[in-house]
Structure formats: structure tokens, C-alpha cells
Amino acid sequence: MSGIPFSDIPSLFGYQFMQYAVLGGTLAAATCAAIGLFMLLRREALIGEGIAHVSFGGIALGLFIGVYPVYTALLLSVAATLFIGWLRRRGIANSDAAIGIVVAFGLSLGLVLLSLSGGFNVDLFTYLFGSVLTIDAQDLLISAGLAAGVLVFLLALHKEVLSITFDEKAARVSGIPVERIDFAFNILVALTVALSIKIIGILLVTALLILPGVAAMQLRLSFRGTMLFAIAASAASVTTGVIVSAVANIAASAAIIFTAMAVAAVTTVYSRLGDAT
Q1: Can you give the pLDDT at residue 217?
Q2: Three-class SS string for 151-184?
Q3: CATH architecture, range 6-276
Q4: Does 1 have pLDDT greater than 60?
Q5: What's the pLDDT tens digit per position in 77-92?
Q6: Which residues, other chains included, contact 194 with Cβ-Cβ below 8 Å and sequence gap of 6+?
């Protein structure tokens, strides 16, 4: 089945579902890019993957008990983030082991609930692979609220987060409340992942967290420039991906990720060519 003609693309943006898709997707992508850049600097990119898999269990739980799945995904995601932090602080497990534990729990919980409810259904597939074109007003408000919260946090505390990232001991000596800021940051990571899964999908949300940051870091800009480029690249990937999905009749989430990968590839090649000259 073929997609729509390219000449009809402008008319698509007259429809509310397309406006919601681009706006909601852009908000989620920008949030993922902003949080994801800090995760890359902190070498915690895989935490997003762990939380995404826990969200699978949360989504299955919501569908099983008849509650809006995003709410149960949020609950389990936050709990998983706190559990990972607790394991690390207590010296029970390092980051990789802690992430492996929560991944196993999330997948096992999801599979058990799926077995009890009779298997996969359309709603679960929507969250697994994303469905940016089905964003409604509620999803848009949630995305806007999350984006605002992340923006306020980063504007207020980005210097402290960077200080903790690059030299935690020095940050403690200077009086920065490391535990509190880490706690708040980890909660924002959990919220970002859980609230983005309907748009990009559980299986692909980690890519939207790391690819824009990877692309931006190749250009060796200032921190502010790197952050702005990551956000812009992420937002552009959503808009381009939605258009490509409509023209080529392919999954929007996959088109978004392929676009983000292309941006990362281009910036990498550009950087390497610059080094060679």
C-alpha cells in the first residue's frame, strides 16, 4: 500500500491529528534530547533502556487492571529509577547489574500479565512501537507539562548537574546537595521515558534519548550550543519522520529514529572530514 503523494503533504497539516502529532512529538523529542545529553555526559545512557523495559510491565499492568497505562508506567518507572539508585548507593550492584535487574523484572511482569489477559492486543502494540499519529489533547498536555518541568529544572540547576557530572567530589565540597539533585534528575529521566513511550514506543525511546546528543557532540560546540543543536535535531527528526511515514507509508516511530540516525551520521562524517583537513 503506497503513501500519500508528496504534493499533498502541506494539506495534511490542516488536520488536527497531524498538528497534534508534530507538536506533541516535538515536545517529547526536545525533552528526550535535553535529558539525554546529560545522560550521555553522566555515562548513564543505558538507564533509559532499563526504564523503558520496566515501562513495558507498567503498560501491561495498566491494560490488565483497566487504568490509563501511562499512569502505571510512570509509577513503575519512578520506582525502578529509585531502586537502581538505591542498589548503587548501597554497593549491592553497579549500574549495569542494577539495570539488568529492573529490565528482567519489567519484562517478566509484562509477560505474566499478558499471559493472564490472553496475550498481545492492539493497545499494547501501540505502546511497544509508538503511535505519534494517535496523540490526543491529553497526551499533548502531558508532553507540554513534562517539557516545562524539564526546562525549569535544567535552567535552574544545569550548572550544579554539570558539576556533579564532571567532579562529584568537588561538587560535594562546594556544598552542592548531590543526593537531592541526583534524585530529582533521575525522577525526570523516569518521567521522560514513561511519557514518551506512546509517541516513539518502548522499543525505540532510548534511541531518541541518545541519538540527538551523539549527533550534537560530534560538532564540538559549547555546552549551550550542543544542547540547542541536540534539541533542534530531535525536533526536526520528528517532523521529518512524520512526513516520511506519510509519504512512504511506514511506521512513524521508525521513520523518526532513522532520521535521527541520519543526522548523527552526517555530523559524524562532517566532524571526521574537518579533522582530516
Answers
A1: 94
A2: HHHHHHHHHHHHHHHHCHHHHHHCCCCHHHHHHH
A3: Orthogonal Bundle (1.10)
A4: no
A5: 889 888 888 888 788 8
A6: 51, 55, 58, 70, 73, 74, 77, 78
Q: Positive or negative CA dihedral for 60, 66, 72, 76?
A: negative
C-alpha cell at 250: 511506514
Tell me the C-alpha distance between 104 and 131, whole Å: 25
Alpha-carbon distance of 21 to 237, in angstroms, equals 13
Does this model's pTM top 0.70? My answer is: yes
d(CA 173, CA 193): 32
The pLDDT tens digits for 151-183 are 888 888 888 888 888 888 888 888 888 888 888
Least Cα distance to 73 among 91, 51, 45, 95 occurs for: 51
Q: According to the model, what pLDDT value does residue 262 have? A: 95
Contacts of residues 14-20 at CB distance under 8 Å and 24 or more positions apart, as own/partner, are: 17/133, 17/134, 17/135, 18/133, 18/242, 20/135, 20/136, 20/137, 20/139, 20/140
> Is a pLDDT exceeding 60 seen at residue 2?
no
